[in-house]
Amino acid sequence: MSTNQMQVLLVEDEPAQREVLAYNLESEGYAVRRAENGEEAMMLINEAAPDIIILDWMMPLLSGIEVCRRVKTRPETREIPVIMLSARSEEVDAVRGLDTGADDYVVKPYNLRELMARVRNQLRRVRPAASGEVLSFDDIQLNAETHRVTRADEEIKLGPTEFRLLVVLMEKPGRVFSRDQLLDLVWGRDIYVDTRTVDVHIARLRKALSAKGGADPIRTVRGTGYALG
Question: What CATH superfamily classification does 7-126 receive?
Answer without folding.
Answer: Response regulator (3.40.50.2300)
